[in-house]
Amino acid sequence: MRKPHALTRLPQRSIDSVSLLLGSPARWTMLYELARHDLVSVTHLASTSGLSPSATSMHVRVMRKTGIIEQGMGRLYRLTPAYRPAPGQDYLDLGPCRLMLPPPG
Questions:
Q1: pLDDT digit string, tens, across residues 77-97
Q2: Which residue, among 35, 34, 61, 56, has the nearest Cα to 46 in the 3D structure?
Q3: Do the beta carbons of residue 33 and residue 44 sit within 8 Å?
Q4: Which of the four pLDDT bands, split at 50, 70 and 90, describes residue 34?
Q5: What are the structural domains, with CATH classification, of the chain?
Q6: Under 8 Å CB-to-CB from 59, ≥6 apart: which residues?
Q7: What is the pTM of this model?
């Protein structure tokens, strides 16, 4: 099995890395939540994705490995600055693709 490339800068994203990131519907849900909030706990991500906190932690680990999220204060997570959507922007730019964000609410 081939290891995915690390996502370190927006222009250097590979299809393999984006596939790893988006290979789970639960991670899509978590990305939506991370795009809406500045800092998010694993407990919050678990409740919105319908997974247990331990399963959510494994997904968070994958997303941290790709470089799309980082640990903020305490045990709270956020999108890394390069991937945060601009105010009013309704998508996450993942290089090879854009993840459309649902309307707030």
A1: 999 998 889 888 888 887 777
A2: 56
A3: yes
A4: very high
A5: 12-98 (1.10.10.10)
A6: 24, 26, 27, 30, 45, 49, 51
A7: 0.77
